[in-house]
Amino acid sequence: MDITIHSTFLPHNDPAASLAFYRDTLGFEVRNDVEYGGMHWITVGPAGQPGTSIVLYPPAASPGITDDERRTIAEMMAKGTYGTILLATRDLDGAFEQLQASGAEVVQEPAEQPYGVRDCAVRDPAGNLIRLQELR
Fold this sequence. Notes:
Layout: E1 7-11, H1 15-25, E2 29-36, E3 39-45, E4 53-57, H2 67-79, E5 84-89, H3 92-101, E6 105-112, E7 118-123, E8 129-134
Parallel strand pairs: 1-4, 5-8
Antiparallel strand pairs: 2-3, 3-4, 6-7, 7-8
């Protein structure tokens, strides 16, 4: 099989804040920006990886979820326990400085982990946890 990762989905609750974070802070390209039925999807990705994207989506658009589930998702997003993504960089300290300067909520400063990686963690404007791992 020849399988690649094409897209992953992360929820957002503020398209403008999400766009500013992923485009302006992380430097990702905007690949698609769609509004439909009062909702907003934004597809972003790293410039050097045109085949890999993150779709920032409104969780209310998920088909088949109940109002109770929507409330639970909103609560989990507010706590920062709903969405997670792992990104990587060769310059962890420089990237962390930029994230910190942007006002991103810092969860963990760069540190050596007992499982053999050096990483840090921040939250995006929707509360999604972003772990940033150093490539060695």
